[in-house]
Amino acid sequence: MWDNILSALPLLFSPSVLIAMLVGTTIGVFIGALPGLSATMGIAVLIPLTFTMEPLVALGMMAGIFNGAMYGGAIPAILLRIPGTPAGIATVFDGNPMAQKGEGLKAMKIALMSSCIGGSISALCLLLLSPPLASLALRFGPVELFWIAVFGLAAISVLLSDVPVKGLISACFGLLIGMVGIDSMSGYERFTFDVLELSSGISILVILTGLYAIPPALTLAQEATLIKKGAEANSLSASKSKIRWSFFIPTWCRASIIGVIVGIIPGTGGNIAAMLSWNETRRVSKDSSRFGKGAPEGVAAAECANNADNASSLIPALTLGIPGSSVSAVILGGLLVHGLQPGPELFTQSAPVTYGFILSMLVTSIMLFFVGRAGARVFINVMYMPPLILAPIIIALTAIGIYAINNSIFEVWLVFFFGIIGWCMERLSIPLAPAVLAVILGPIAESSLRRAMIIGRGDFAFLFSSPIALVLVTIITLTILSPLIRRVIGHPLLKRASIPQSNDSDQKKHLDS
Amino acid sequence: MPPPRCYLRKPGAIIMIRKASIELAVAIPAAILSVLGALHASSFPQQTAYLPTTVLSIMSLLLVLWAFQSVMALRRNQSSTLILEKGKARRFLLLVLSTATLIALAPALGFVTSFFIFIPLSGFILGYKHWKPLLAAGTIFSLLIYLIFKVLLSRPLPPELFIHLF
Questions:
Q1: Residues A215, A447 contacting (CB under 8 angstroms)
Q2: What is the predicted ipTM?
Q3: Which of A190, A221, A395 lies at the smallest CB-CB distance from B92?
Q4: Where's the DUF112 domain (chain A) (predicted)?
Q5: DSSP code of A34?
Q6: Inter-chain contact B102–A395, Cβ cutoff 8 Å?
């Protein structure tokens, strides 16, 4: 492992990768600071633009966006009581009351430092936990690989939606999209309907950008939430009291552990990590009544945990090829675009780039501190960017990014088509991540199943022949039955926590004409 | 702290629809399409047909289940309500139409020229009536696209109309 890390260092610290990480982190904070946009959208728009770049330059930029956006979400959460990203919801609880007391700048500094620490610890966990897990996964045969792919799909479909049926429908839709084109094993065309452009299949990039970049743009235009400048003026009239950083160390330790563990579990995400961490910090506090009224530890707990979730969510994605969240699914897409097949082979066949990417998660977490401090005032102004200009810009950027890859206007139309489908799916509460994951995992599952059938001479019992396969089948069954089990056992942990209500209806007003 | 001030105009007409009704209207045709797809997939050669037939069969069952859940929600009056505001629907449709026009015209006009027109015009018809920021955004964005894709990345893009004109 250490040899691989050493071999990745010269690549990582080359000027182009350093600039890419810096640019990515800055863009990430910008995206996070804009309510309605997320890291997932930012990376989805960026992937086509990075197509011609060196893999590590592109991946370094993605790492920067991922870490930057998670912190950026805290800026409107603190100053305007509007979370920039879903993971910023828990930051609102104490961040906005701090801003109301004129401690907005202090809350932002705490959020920034906590984000950097959470992100760095998470990146170290990714660096240390992934190689042993990958070497274990290398021993898996086609049977185990098939069940792992099924597990990934089942987990994200069932856990990511309130109604498991919708998650599973989304997964089936993704599997179907993944089957379009010429079957690589038989040469037979599937679902192409004599359209020449479909015979090579639908690119993962088209699905990613269609489902993740277009719907936020349509929603931005539709909602048209315009915030008039000057709203934050009172919040920033900061008291110049010094922050005692040592006070936050226990909170950071607790939040980092929660964030890392939650990140590894598929189907969770930064918002759950932040909520759990905020609740746990309040529970162990000597005076829990301060929480929700501007307790600085509340901001530290939420921000540290949501950034600690980032890199750790990539552990199952990089080692097994199973992304635990929508943003890690998009990053997997990014790896595929740059010719890197997610899974244990990443750590052997493409070790320098893989380790370089993992280290870029660490470097961008540290870089975030400097970017956040230097650009604080600029990032605050980003919140006021008119969405009615931003929405056409996102669409235009997506269109040219996709066109520039294959010079195909057909693919631009496809992105637009998938964008509208994605928007409809969001309105009907059908999660998008299972569809994207199914496009990635579908071919892996299909080829593994076919190889297993050939080895097992067509006997289905061969799929249950190894102990690992039996363990995986048990886990899959439990995952699918988990909504039923949860209903029988009682309410989930989150429902027990009494969370302060953040009513931002008075702030989110829309423009109608 | 007073809430941030927002631009607010008179709210448009509001249509309220039960979400389960829309879900039912989506699930039934999707289930029919899925069954037809499964029948189509079963005509593929054996090895090729295996996964599509299985997936489409499962999908058909799931869609029927979803339709059933929607019917139950409607019968028990448990469905949430979707609120469609006229202004929101109008902006959504306008952006969809302007995007379709952009994609249709871009190969003929060139991407940079199209963006120079698309961004200010879309922003304006969507309701942002400040011409200066709109024109500035359109010009800066088009210029950046030209620099990145033509100069820096040297990507072969359709010929630009503005180059022919000037």
A1: no
A2: 0.88
A3: A221
A4: 18-437
A5: S
A6: yes
